[in-house]
Amino acid sequence: MNNKYAVVFAGQGAQKPGMGKSLYEASPAARAVFDQAGDEIKFDCFEADAERLKQTEVTQPAVYTMDMAAYAALREALSSNNADGLLEPAALAGFSLGEYAALTAAGVIESLSTGLELVKQRSLLMKAAGTNPDGSQKGTMAAGMGDKDAVLALVEKARGEDILEAVNFNSPQQTVVAGDIVAVERFAALAAEDRSLGVKAIPLPVSGAFHSPIMRSAGEGLAEALKNYTFAEPNLPVYLNSTGELYAGSAPDVMVRQIQSPVQWQKTIEAIAATGAKTIIEVGPGKTLTSLTKKIAPDLLALHIEDAETLEEAKHGLTT
């Protein structure tokens, strides 16, 4: 078989109670990642309920840690299996928050501890950008299921004087929108009222309108915070959210642009498929990216790792 594989890292919204506990028990490499992240993050991954996990400042460090633990478990499993030629992925990418895990795996972010510092700062900046002065949530997101052009047309119809934009181009049949709560609710109501549009709106479990203009102040704050860090060039190919193309430019520019720009995920998977990779492995909670891969590039073998069982399945899929 063609052993060329890529790894994609899950993003915010994929979190779930109990995530990572099975990996912690089954994989020494994953356990080391969780232990380094600390007891608070272990509690949030293993014990926190869905409501706590929905909070941006909790979600992002927890999902980042889960992503890195699942990736460590994958590398450990392949190494112990003596799977020649399988140790280094041909490409990396991460969905939104997951891009920080991809940049860590590629060596751009020097360590897990640095990655956690950056993710925690990012999460607080995004929370502040998405919160009104009275403490209420400023924006939200919904998945628009249906033809992309129909979703974009509905965004134009629903926007009015409020903020509403398409922010995640996930697959030919899924485009996520974000903006002011009233605008997202209007988008959902219009989709439900006019079934002839063929669009279904599904609210997402997030606490802000990520990748929308509402995040502009977060981008400004992140640009300032990143002045305190140094970054390396990637030692593995990384495909970026904002372009769907290979990493280019400086890490601070990449991170600031990403926080307030749409995620071009369909383009990302299409670009990875064009490299000749035959398998894409999603690491982290859930299997959202695995499902999207099957819709974007159905000829690829799509695997995911989020617990001990799926770790074994992925290892088997790569080595047989």
Beta fraction: 5-15%
Tell me the structural class: alpha/beta
Low-confidence stretches: none
Number of domains: 2
Helix percentage range: 40-55%
**Overall pLDDT, averaged?**
93
Count every beta strand, where a strand is a DSSP E run of 2 or more residues.
Answer: 8
The termini sit apart by 8 Å
Q: Please give the order of strands in the largest beta sheet.
A: 2-1-7-8
At the first level of CATH, the class of the largest domain is: Alpha Beta
Could you explain the architecture of this structure?
The protein is α/β, with parallel strands linked by helices. The chain has two domains: 5-130 and 215-319, Malonyl-Coenzyme A Acyl Carrier Protein, domain 2, CATH 3.40.366; 139-206, 2-Layer Sandwich (Alpha-Beta Plaits), CATH 3.30.70.250. The chain is built from 14 helices and eight strands. The strands form two sheets. A four-stranded parallel sheet has the order 2-1-7-8, sandwiched between helices. The longest helix is centred in the N-terminal third of the chain and has 25 residues, at 56-80. It is globular, with a radius of gyration of 19 Å. The mean pLDDT is 93.
